[in-house]
User: Fold Periplasmic binding protein/LacI transcriptional regulator from Caballeronia pedi.
Amino acid sequence: MNRTIRRRVVKAAVALAVCTALPLASSSVFAQTPAKPKVALVMKSLANEFFLTMENGAKDYQAHNASQFDLITNGIKDETDTAAQIRIVEQMIVSKVDALIIAPADSKALVPVIKKAADAGIIVVNIDNRLDPDVLKSKDLNVPFVGPDNKKGARKVGDYLAPKLKKGDEVAIIEGVTTTTNSQARSAGFKEAMDAAGMKVVALQSGEWEIDKGNAVASQILNANPNVKALLCDNDNMAIGAVSAIRAAGKAGKVQVVGFDNIGAIKPMLKDGRVLATADQYAAKQAVFGIDVALKAIAGHKKQSELSQVVETPVDLITK
Assistant:
């Protein structure tokens, strides 16, 4: 082989080697590109308009920030199906999500599985219903709460109701699931407002956050306490049920109703006076705030123990 031919063969071999190597180099670059964080939003009952609003707000936020994170949303069928929510969290752990934003159905029962998620390296943020601080402490677990001061919000609603009543009037409180801290806080805010105005709280019963159960409890209260002048409901679903119970008892216009959440279904009732007032805790914003806390923690390579404990979000009185 003469020198000219040899040089051509060498050049061709080099060119072939370069061409063969280029795709491998390109693949290596793409392989090193970090994946988008996968965020899971786990809510309570999606039969509750409040949580549908929360889900839609989160999806809208992700759609406008699609390059920043991926989103998985899920919820349970009814407010008391704690076991189903625990199973959803376990599924998210298996799916290796990067962050878990959770509105727990029970303030205590969800803590062990949330501990499991945090131990798996998942950033956990608590929204809507605060996890029990004592149970978290017993597990040596720090989970930031992103949400409103529920007691303060209920106190605003109760204070608005008080001047519409007379001192000494009988009132009743329909609470949500009794093992949830947000229901406990709202009931406490309502009671504080009524006590301050000199009203008599004659009943405190759980409607478990739901319309039908709220209706049944309201009917029982009205039958047992015919002089009740107001029903203070820990959420709007139960307020809707209470309105139906009042109508069925022939007491429309004689018993005031207040709620909490400002869902779409309550707005016509506010307008025509069937419901006097509610509180808006901005469901969509809560989800967005929770997602932001998690994404910032991931971007800053923060550990669960390093996250702030409380990020308070707004809650406002809503009337006609």
